[in-house]
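Changelog note: in this version the structure field was regenerated for every chain. One regenerated record is shown below for reference.
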Amino acid sequence: ESDAAENGFRYFGRAATPLHRAAGEYGRGEVFLAEYRWEEALAAYAESRTLYDALGDKRSAAACLRQMSRAEISKGDNERGLAYVRQSLAACEEAGDSVGRAMALNNMGIAMGSLGRYGEALEAFGESLRAMEALGDIEGAGQAWNNIGRVHYFLADYPRAIESYRRGMEIAEKLDDPSGAAILWMNEGIVHGDIADYSKAIECFRKS
């Protein structure tokens, strides 16, 4: 295992309480996810979920399911990812976890988009956007606008793609987030390149 995962295991894995073990397994899952070690991440999140379920901690169990959906989507199994994200959404509803629900909806949009189910992807991202805005999560809303723009791009609805990216850029500028703005400028530049507006594409790329 990586040093980070091993250190987490040493600290939490031998801890006395189930709560510490649950947190430790979740932490190991996060490390494995960051290292693209999908199967190990899934195993760690599954163990964490089992422990949280036993503790009656529904929000944390829902978070494990949400991260399991991320791992499945990342390794290309979008159908399994959708199954986990639906379980996570149901658990969030039961626990009254609005933040978790908004994040799970984002995962659902990614999976739907990867499967070419663009209408459903837009619906999920739109719900996630509204939830993020209601929660005051401006950064999350900006990410949702970028995702919405990407779906419109894949649908060849270029005006809406550009409009969505610019809504995201407004948020990135408000947050003074140059890396977020750079991604959005790059995405808009790709759109302009596809419609042969090369001078505008170059302008966007220079800003990215």
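Spot check on this record: The first helix runs from residue 3 to 13. DSSP finds eleven helices and no strands in the chain.
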